[in-house]
Design goal:
three-stranded antiparallel beta sheet; 9 helices; single chain; 370 residues; binds 2-acetamido-2-deoxy-beta-D-glucopyranose; globular
């Protein structure tokens, strides 16, 4: 094990290594906001812009006019966030269409910061999405770098954007506390805010969902495993299995390089047991899960995808081989969607590194919102 700081150092070096590899392979990423790897493609392929966040090397494509995508986050169209000082009772007191900080929303031992985005028109009994950022990120960055808030204006759900209290802003996905139902840690602070939203904002308890990228993806697994009573579905973008980052007795946001490098190999039963031990005695339905991972991920190695598959198929009692595994017309080539049952899908993105770009509209379908 080493500290998250050295881990961050390692992560920071990766883009340089990718730059050195001058050309992306077929189906590899070649541009997009936040992308610092190769921007040209191997011969016979061309870099095609799919969205602001993702350009891909596609075979035989005519070279498109070069679209230079800024690698930094575009100037924030975000109004400055407002702190209300305390969690207002009732959604009416929260300003619309503005990222707003709340506090005093219940047990929050690590002082996770919490921000809410309420659209102009809230659906009756709205759904809630908890969207968790990556290491070095913030609630504000995930808010402006994703479409979760923007799409809430169409679909009327409410979004919570938690912000990590730890230096380096990785999430606590390793402590005993965070991996236990109501055991403390970052996960309890986030679960408290979701419970607060149900009790005070009229959020539909049957439609409380979690999504996150990288460290936020790991947090999503933690929330799904330790708070199955609160969360009804989770989408894990480039994360790890529940409990894979466990580092008992170490600081809350410890890095687990064994897990990150895909060297923690357990059986499905052992992985499922970590989930069951998080909340012994829980007999309700487990949140349905969707996991996404890139085969060229060198931060959280792709083996983590297969460990997640073992874990969730065992939790749901599904066979270990998918019912179907196919490409999807709306996804880039090289993406495969393996369905194991109604509650678990695993999407593998060929040639994609850390992290798989977000597909928010599809996530909303999985959540049953869109
Ligand atoms: C789905 O198919 C792809 C490509 O054929 C393969 O790489 C991937 O491992 C399969 N997914 C699962 C979960 O078995
Ligand atoms: C994967 O396939 C299943 C079954 O066809 C479908 O319901 C689901 O929406 C697909 N998932 C994605 C991410 O496209």
């Amino acid at each position: 094990m080493f500290s998250f700081k050295s881990a961050l150092g390692l992560v920071a070096l990766l883009p340089l290594a990718q730059l050195a590899a001058a050309q992306s392979p077929v189906w590899g990423q070649c541009g997009g906001i936040g992308w610092s790897g190769a921007t040209s493609c191997v011969s016979g392929t061309a870099c095609v812009k799919l969205n602001d966040y993702y350009s891909q090397c596609q075979p035989g494509a005519a070279p498109p006019p070069t679209t230079t995508v800024p690698v930094t986050t575009p100037p924030a169209t975000t109004p400055p966030s407002t702190s209300t000082g305390s969690a207002p009772t009732g959604l009416a007191s929260i300003p619309a269409s503005k990222l707003t900080q709340i506090s005093n929303f219940g047990p929050n031992p690590n002082n996770v910061q919490m921000f809410v985005y309420k659209p102009a028109k809230v659906a009756s009994k709205p759904a809630l999405i908890v969207a968790s950022h990556f290491c070095t990120g913030t609630a504000q960055q995930y808010f402006s770098g994703s479409k979760f808030a923007q799409l809430s204006e169409t679909y009327g759900y409410v979004v919570l954007f938690p912000s990590s209290p730890h230096s380096g802003t990785c999430w606590d996905v390793s402590s005993d506390a965070t991996l236990k139902h109501d055991g403390g840690g970052d996960s309890q602070g986030i679960a408290s805010a979701a419970r607060f939203a149900i009790s005070n904002w009229g959020v539909d308890p049957a439609r409380v969902f979690a999504v996150g990228t990288s460290s936020g993806a790991m947090m999503t697994s933690v929330l799904a495993g330790a708070y199955p009573d609160v969360f009804k579905a989770g989408i894990v973008d480039s994360g790890v299995a529940f409990g894979c980052f466990a580092v008992p007795g170490q600081p809350a946001d410890s890095w687990n390089s064994q897990c990150a490098q895909g060297q923690l190999i357990l059986t499905g039963q052992q992985w499922a047991q970590r989930v069951f031990d998080a909340y012994p005695g829980f007999t309700g339905a487990r949140p349905k899960m969707q996991v996404w991972h890139g085969t060229a991920d060198t931060t959280l190695y792709p083996q983590n995808f297969y460990e997640e598959v073992k874990q969730w198929t065992t939790v749901f009692g599904y066979p270990s081989t998918p019912i179907s595994n196919a490409s999807e017309p709306y996804l880039p080539g090289g993406y495969s969607n393996a369905t194991f049952g109604p509650n678990f899908q695993a999407i593998l993105a060929q040639g994609v590194g850390h992290t798989v770009p977000l597909f928010e509209q599809q996530y909303l379908q999985f959540f049953g919102i869109a």
